[in-house]
Design a protein that fits this description.
By secondary structure, the protein is mostly beta strands. The protein is built from one helix and 33 strands. β8 and β9 form a beta hairpin.
Length: 348
């Protein structure tokens, strides 16, 4: 079966619905485009295992007894952690460690500001944090920060429509200047009223959780990269659903999706990268740019590589089976059913 997609330079995915199923099941896909031309290359089979993810990124088994607690309570908070200071509704973490966060903070934030070599683990256990003038969770400095959604927990982050001036330029309800990891089995609702939902200036890695994100700009953004192993995502954005935006380094600006369930409704692009998009698994329901009715009369998408080639031109295109639609003759209408194609595979 088709197991990997590699989307090349300046890829814009406007609508994609993919089901990658087990042996004996069929693969289905639906694409609805606006006025953008897509170049899509199918690659060789990808590794959808967790081997590309570190133990730190995968581990969501925290020890609640040894973790420092941060209890949020209206306009203030309390903590038993020696690396925690609290003032004017701002909870600042200055030491590596695991911090178990619960309760409600009406107008304040969690700030991580440690040595550049230190890792910080934030566990959200029914935490609700609102901040009217900045990011509810702001990582100023650390080596890596992991946010784990505790089992059966429901967590919420909400920011305001304007931010105070800040030299670190936060622009998301959950924002990190350094590498950011999110995992766990709980849920996180993000109301990005200023710009992004979850964003980082380096790598963003998500290995689990249930996410409902609404944003004025991009829902998920990792400047250097976005990697997703698993999770359930409902993303509603006024710009891109998922974005990697590094234009300065040709080895960065990529998105890799190994699994998960995605419903994306975006006014911009569904998924936008500067270099590559690799999809090894997952299910996708994406409508972007207002859907096909707002696009031009014809759009072009080219598919080829490991499964052979196919080409279709229309606003709403669907294909079923293990190969793309057969390439029509010049001037002919696009095929509605897949055809056999035995072209040799080529690596992406």
């Amino acid at each position: 079966m088709l197991s990997a997609f590699s989307f090349r330079r300046q890829l814009v995915v406007l609508m994609l619905c993919i089901a990658l199923l087990c042996t004996g099941c069929s693969q289905t896909a639906a694409v609805s485009s606006t006025d953008t031309t897509e170049e899509i290359t199918t690659g060789t089979s990808g590794d959808t295992s967790s081997s590309d993810y570190s133990d730190f990124e995968l581990d969501d088994n925290y020890d609640a007894d040894s973790a420092a607690t941060i209890t949020l309570d209206g306009d203030t908070a309390s903590s038993n952690g020696t690396g925690v200071s609290i003032a004017d509704g701002v909870v600042t973490i200055t030491k590596a460690g695991t911090y178990l966060i619960s309760g409600t903070l009406d107008d304040g934030q969690i700030v991580v500001n440690t040595d550049k070599t230190e890792k910080v683990w934030l566990v959200l256990d029914n935490a609700s944090i609102s901040c009217s003038d900045s990011s509810p969770i702001l990582v100023r400095q650390a080596d890596k920060v992991k946010v784990t959604l505790a089992p059966d927990s429901q967590n919420t982050l909400s920011d305001g429509e304007t931010y105070l001036e800040d030299e670190d330029n936060p622009d998301a309800a959950l924002f990190s200047k350094d590498d950011l990891v999110v995992n766990g089995s709980g849920s996180l609702t993000v109301n990005g009223n200023y710009k992004h939902g979850i964003a980082g200036n380096d790598d963003l890695v998500i290995t689990g959780g249930t996410f409902d994100i609404t944003s004025k700009s991009h829902a998920l953004r990792g400047k250097d990269s976005v990697s997703i192993l698993d999770g359930t995502f409902t993303l509603t954005s006024e710009k891109d659903g998922i974005q990697a935006s590094n234009t300065e380094d040709s080895t960065k600006g990529w998105v890799k999706i190994d699994g998960g369930s995605f419903v994306i409704r975006s006014s911009g692009d569904g998924i936008q990268t500067e270099t590559d998009l690799t999809v090894n698994g997952g299910s996708f329901d994406i409508i972007s740019g207002g859907g096909a009715e707002n696009g031009s009369e014809h759009t072009t998408a080219t598919m080829g590589g490991g499964m052979g080639g196919g080409r279709f031109q229309r606003d709403d295109a669907t294909f079923d089976g293990t190969t793309p639609p057969e390439k029509p003759a010049d001037g002919a209408a696009p095929a509605d059913t897949p055809s056999e194609n035995t072209a040799p595979a080529s690596a992406s």
